[in-house]
Structure formats: C-alpha cells, structure tokens
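Long-time lurker, finally posting.

We've been working with Phosphoglycerate dehydrogenase (Neoaquamicrobium microcysteis) and I want a structural starting point before designing mutants. I don't trust myself to interpret raw outputs, so I'm hoping someone here can both generate the structure tokens and explain anything notable. Sequence follows.
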Amino acid sequence: MHDTDTRRTYRILICDLVGLRPGPDGRPDCSEVRRHVEQAGCTFHDGDAIVAADIGGGGIHFVYRPDLNTAEDFVAEAGDGLYDAVIAAATVVPADTVFPEGGVRIGAGTGNMQSRSWGGGSGAGGAAPLMNTPGINSRATAQMVMKAILRFLPDLPFDLLHERTVSGRFDTGRDLKDFPTGKLEGRRIAVLGYGNIGREVARLADAFGMRPVIYARERHRRWIEAEGFGYAATPVEASAGADIVSVHLGLGAADPPTGRFANAGLVGEAIFDAVSPGATLVNFDRGELVDAGALDTAMGDGRIRFAAIDADIFSDAATGAVSGPLAPYLPLVERHAGRLLLLPHAVADTDHPSRVAGAKQAVDQILEAIRFRRVGNLKGDLPDGYTAVPGRAIHGIGGVSAGALAGVAEDADVVKQLAYTTGRLHDFWTRLAAAADAEERQALCAAMGDGVMLDVNRQAALMGALGLHGPFTGKPRD
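Top reply, 14 upvotes:
Generated this for you. Predicted structure of Phosphoglycerate dehydrogenase:
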C-alpha cells in the first residue's frame, strides 16, 4: 500500500446491488462479488449486520449497503467522512459526501457521482480520483434498444393477430390485407453518439439491414466510415430523414451557476422537424437529453409516432410524490397511449452478469488506487500523487488497443492463418486488377471465387473473434 502503516483501516461503501439474480434466500445474490473481495485479501460486510463506524483493526473493508435510496439516507450513512471510497451504479452520490480515496461508477456515465471529493460528476478537480467501468453494460443496453425498436417496428400487432387467430375470427385470405407492414431493412437510423453503446447499436442495426448514420465529433469520422456507417457532423444532420433516432450522448458537463447539463434538451424541435414523418425515438441514455414538451408536440402532430424513454424515477415513500428525470414524461402517457413506453432506468441495470463483472472491476480499480496509487478508467482530472494506467476493456467493446493487437502474436497458429488468408486475398485482387478485359476478369472470378469468399468469411470471423474491429485507441491493454 502507499501508506506504510498496515494498521490503517479503510472502509469502502458499496451503495448499489452487485448481483441481481435471486440467491437461495430469494434476495439479490452478492456472493460472487463477496468471494472476489475476499480473494483479494479484504473483508466484505453485509451493511445490515454491522455498524461501519465499529469496523477497525486495519485492512480494507467493503460495506454493502444497497438500500440507500434517498439523499438523506446516503448522507446519514456516509456524509461525515466515515468511508474512504465508494462504488455506485445508479445511486446518486451527493455532493456533500467525502471519499478521500476515490469512487468508481459501475457503468460508463458518471453524472450520479457528485461527491466534492473529485469535483462532481465530471471528475474535474478534487483530491480523489473518479473512475468508471466503460463497456460493462454496452451490449445489454444496445440489445434493449433493439428490443424497443422491434416493439414498434415493423408495426405488426402480434397480440391482436394472436387473439383473433385463437378465437377463430381471422381468415388469412380475407383479412391479412388489413395488416400491411414494412421491414426494418433499408430504414435510416440516426445514432447520436459514438461511444461504446452507440457503436453497438449501430452494429446491431446494420445486422438488421438498416442504414446507421452516426453523429460524433469529427475525429471519429474516419473510423465511423471505415465500419461502413454514415457520418453526420450535427445531430440534426444525422436525424434528417431518419426513421429512428437512438440517443447515446451523455449529459455532458454541468454549468456551475445553473447546474444545467450541456446536452440537456438537445433532442428537441430541430431534430423532430428533421426526421421522417412518423419516426421512432429511443432514449435509453438520460431522460434530460430530450425536451419532453417538444416530444409531446411532435407526438401530437405525427412527427414522432413512437417513443421509448428509460430514466430514473423516484417516489417519496411518505407522500407518494414523484420526481426524477422521467417525471416530466408521465403527463404524456394519457395523450399518447400505446405509443409511449416509459421505463425506470432499468435497461442498463438489470443484466446480472454485467452488474457482477462491473462490480468486480470496480473493486479491483479501487484497490489499485488505494494500494498502489494507480488509476485506470479515469474520469476527469488525475489528482496529485496518482499515476494513470491503461483502463480495462471488455472483449470486442470499444476500440482496439496496441496491446490487443500485439497480443495476437502470442498465438502463432492464428497469425499464420491471418497471414495465409491475407496473402491469398492480396493475390486475387492483384490479379483481378491486372486482368486485360471483362472476359478475363469473369474467368478469374469463376476459377477463384469459391476460395476467395471462403477466405473473406474466415478472415472476418477470425478478426471478430479476436475483437479486432472498430477504432484504434493507440493505448496498450493492461
């Protein structure tokens, strides 16, 4: 440890569930993370069975309190500086809490990590490091985006057709004409944001034959186009003529005087004017990104036919009062019944394997920061006394690091296979380009086409299995 006094006691608060699947007792099972903590030489405490202030005797102690639902509860537990660090997922870590050894958010966005110890959700300033676990829930979230799209499109009413069929009130020859629909293939989807989730959504949409157009910063353009996606310089440009808009931008930085986030309300009238009439909106990012009033108007006049929003919502146990980013959408439900789907920020937070993997990674990152002053997956500024190290990556998620690329050489057979297929493909394309005329090209393709397409498919499959697709990050993998 950086502190040579091994008698020091560290207390780390885990304030969200680290297992979602029910265990033998019917409660969400945290046993996998408990074992991980214990294997790291630390102690895991069930917060219901211990008072954190009573923990002493040296060592690193993780206190599991996933029941801190309100700011008042959180401050009562941790507001006096009792804990050295915190691990959170969806729970808001209030600004007036102190964690001198840092915090980790399970997932990518850190807007809920508001402790002044690291300067708030952006991690700008402060004496402690703020970290995240990017990519942990990217695939689960992207798959839920596709589930929302498929709920609405193609708009074939399965439930109605099933009910009429089993009740004997449907004749295929007579009635099928009353249910015209259209496939997803060929539809334009605007993906706003080229982070891990946005890129996964684009890839899934592409697999369905859709035409992804991605809004991102200019520096991402060559990688977006290299993957076969369209690039747009602005959200409105991406949304022009779009049949579907999927939002993955994050809230951006907060303005200190107002507390308003840079991207709040970004999806509003200008985008709704640009889309194809009757478009579908999916916002499984942050509720504040969409102007709820503008969405109400757009759904009323037909510019937006369907919408799905996933955001936090809170209910006061005593009064029943509802608050949170999803609250402004509640009045829209009655006016747009059957066309508006509201979810309680469940999309990214209900996949058990993702939560467990993210929690284990968060434990490792906190321990590395405490023991060695090394910070991976840093958000914001690096505090004095710490060293930044390469962040951990999920296989196939995000970009390709130099370390991942170099690591292929560890398997000589794989390198040999890649070199062999690459050489064969190079030979074919060189010969095709040098062919004298169309007749010679046709003959060459007839003779070599079978082998060429086998090599193309094998190469693509192997590169995918190795996770070698997407932008190059230039950073070695730890």
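Before you design anything, note these points.
The domain at 9-134+350-397 is CATH 3.40.50.720 (Rossmann fold).
The chain has 15 helices and 18 strands.
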